[in-house]
């Protein structure tokens, strides 16, 4: 790597000296006034640009010059609003993210029908989601690497076109092997979009405005997931074939491809005033990210969120259906009805949870500098007992079950936009796509890639153990009963009782397996609390690096202008 690039991320001396200064907590509430700026300069702290605006305004440029000790004083000017280009970009990205998660959880809404069609058990059903996420996480680093170097717009266009096509083709597969193969290909296409889209938002907005736009973007995740259940179950019921449920999102995908092709790709670091830079090697960037403790710890916490979300989203409708079906009068309860209600609950939880998390973060940042990981950790601690109670209530009271599932998802959804925001302000702009890819790889590899299969495999193992013990007991009972009387009525009764017992074992085994998600939530909360110890330092370091590099760029531009002026003078 060149000397120029090595120097690009060295923090300002004054910023390094101030990283341990508690006054950093007040920098996020700066109003942009000259008195506040002067106070920051005296304390040696770098500005964090926390005001709700774009950094590319002239007043901000003059303010930064004042912070570097120049004699230019900032003049008060009106703050720019959001342009049509920015609204169009955010709208398109949110729409694609919505149908992205619709497609991802459509199968969960018709999982019972899929299991019957291919004659598979819970372990194979969980494998459907696992192979999708495995391919998704394997290709995420590749798209992250390319997203930091090539056109992000066309990478997303190709990716969305790929997952739309493979989803459509997969709906025509008649064998489980063919179906699961196309589910893996869908993951490749979705990896391109999910890795790159948040970095475009980060290059259009900063600070509180960026937080709001990220909340809007991640708001599409729970809402899209809920729509996946609803659209999947409703379409399957209307068409009398679950395969038609997979043919809805490909049609919307064609619209998404057209809209993405019209999107303008902003310069990387545009919102922070950083121009295109010389790239370091991928290994150098990866080592730098692994040294970022806030990034590593928040990724670990988010991995726990992904584990719980993946398990509950995949098995939730099926589990609740099994529990409610055992209640008297619900023998003919349809999976589609439960999936529809579960989708409504997921959507409502997303409508409340994601904006609430963003609003809490923006409110407390002016009071507590490291509030973001605290909010995420507390959200997980609240969600864990709600999940446990919801799992217990599934068999006895459907209303209370859905209520506690709703509360658990609201608390869990507090994390989505905050975790994305943490990544964007502790990582320099030139490495954000790579950081997104690393976070996706880690969170899916140890999170929702394995959780659906792991939960399904554990439940199958527990159920088989229960059935084996039951058959041993039933065999002894039948032998003793046969000595007293042998008639057809008793045989039929025992057969019906065995079938009922198998339903109970299927439900209970899945319940015991899903209890593991509560422990994972507590572990994730601990990771976020540890993140709070380092996040102020890492944020100030990233801000200082951006300022340092911006100053280097301006010096180079002044030198080029001087050389050009000198050349013109000599020619004259």
Q: Can I get a quick summary?
A:
By secondary structure, the chain is mainly α. It has 22 helices and no strands.
How would you describe the overall organization of this protein?
Keywords: Membrane, Transmembrane, Transmembrane helix, Transport. The chain crosses the membrane at residues 87-107, 127-147, 154-173, 179-201, 213-232, 244-263, 295-316, 338-361, 373-394, 400-428, 440-462, 512-536. This is Protein spinster isoform X3. Residues 1-80, 550-572 are annotated as: Disordered. It is a multi-pass membrane protein. The chain is mainly alpha-helical and 572 residues long. It has 22 helices and no strands. α7 runs parallel beside α9 (176-204), α13 packs antiparallel against α14 (335-364) and α13 packs parallel to α19. The relative contact order is 0.14. Residues 1-79 and 487-499 have low confidence and may be disordered.
How are the SSEs ordered, and which strands pair?
Blueprint: H1 3-7, H2 13-17, H3 34-43, H4 58-67, H5 84-109, H6 111-118, H7 122-147, H8 152-170, H9 176-204, H10 207-239, H11 249-261, H12 282-290, H13 293-325, H14 335-364, H15 371-393, H16 398-413, H17 415-426, H18 432-448, H19 451-484, H20 488-514, H21 516-531, H22 535-571
Helix pairs in contact: 5-9, 5-10, 5-11, 7-9, 7-18, 7-19, 8-9, 8-11, 9-10, 9-18, 10-14, 10-17, 13-14, 13-15, 13-17, 13-18, 13-19, 13-20, 13-21, 14-15, 14-16, 14-17, 15-16, 15-17, 15-21, 19-20
């Amino acid at each position: 790597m060149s000397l120029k690039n090595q120097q690009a991320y060295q923090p300002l001396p004054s910023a390094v000296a101030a990283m341990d200064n508690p006054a950093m907590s007040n920098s996020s509430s700066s109003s942009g006034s000259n008195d506040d700026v002067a106070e920051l300069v005296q304390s040696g702290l770098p500005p964090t640009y926390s005001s709700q605006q774009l950094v590319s305004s002239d007043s901000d440029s003059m303010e930064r010059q004042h912070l570097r000790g120049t004699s230019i004083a900032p003049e008060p000017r009106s703050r720019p609003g959001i342009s049509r280009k920015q609204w169009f970009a955010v709208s398109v990205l949110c729409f694609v993210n919505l149908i992205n998660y619709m497609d991802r959880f459509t199968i969960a809404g018709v999982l019972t029908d899929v299991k019957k069609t291919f004659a598979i058990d819970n372990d194979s059903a969980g494998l459907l989601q696992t192979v999708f996420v495995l391919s998704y996480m394997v290709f995420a680093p590749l798209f992250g690497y390319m997203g930091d170097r090539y056109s992000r717009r066309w990478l997303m266009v190709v990716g969305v076109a790929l997952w739309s096509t493979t989803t459509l083709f997969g709906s025509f597969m008649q064998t489980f092997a063919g179906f699961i193969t196309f589910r893996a290909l869908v993951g490749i296409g979705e990896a391109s979009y999910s890795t790159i889209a948040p970095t475009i938002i980060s290059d259009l907005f900063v600070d509180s405005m960026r937080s709001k736009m990220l909340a809007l973007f991640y708001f599409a995740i729970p809402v899209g997931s809920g729509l996946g259940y609803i659209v999947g179950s409703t379409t399957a019921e209307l068409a009398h074939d679950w395969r038609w449920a997979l043919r809805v999102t490909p049609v919307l995908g064609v619209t998404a491809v057209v809209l993405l092709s019209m999107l303008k790709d902003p310069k990387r670091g545009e919102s922070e005033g950083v121009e295109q830079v010389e790239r370091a090697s991928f290994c150098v960037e990866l080592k730098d990210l692994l040294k970022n403790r806030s990034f590593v710890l928040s990724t670990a916490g988010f991995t726990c969120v992904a584990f719980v979300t993946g398990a509950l989203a995949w098995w939730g409708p099926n589990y609740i259906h099994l529990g409610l079906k055992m209640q008297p009068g619900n023998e003919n309860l349809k999976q589609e009805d439960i999936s529809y209600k579960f989708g409504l609950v997921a959507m409502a939880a997303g409508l409340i949870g994601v904006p609430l998390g963003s609003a809490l973060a923006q409110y407390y940042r002016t009071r507590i500098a490291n509030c973001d990981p605290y909010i995420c950790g507390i959200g997980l601690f609240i969600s864990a007992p709600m999940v446990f109670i919801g799992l217990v209530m599934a068999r006895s009271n459907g209303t209370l079950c859905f209520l506690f599932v709703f509360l658990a998802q609201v608390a869990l959804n507090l994390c989505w936009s905050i975790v994305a925001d943490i990544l964007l302000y502790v990582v320099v702009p030139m490495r954000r796509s790579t950081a997104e890819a690393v976070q996706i790889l880690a969170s899916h590899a140890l999170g929702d890639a394995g959780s659906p299969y792991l939960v399904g495999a554990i439940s199958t193992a527990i159920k088989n153990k229960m059935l084996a013990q039951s058959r041993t007991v039933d065999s002894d009972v039948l032998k003793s009963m046969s000595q007293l009387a042998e008639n057809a009525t008793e045989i039929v009764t025992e057969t019906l009782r065995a079938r009922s017992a198998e339903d109970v074992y299927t439900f209970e085994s899945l319940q015991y397996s899903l209890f593991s998600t509560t422990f994972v939530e507590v572990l994730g909360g601990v990771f976020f609390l540890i993140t709070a110890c380092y996040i102020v330092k890492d944020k100030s370091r990233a801000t200082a690096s951006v300022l340092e590099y911006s100053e280097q760029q301006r010096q180079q531009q002044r030198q080029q202008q001087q050389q050009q002026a000198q050349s013109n003078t000599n020619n004259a």
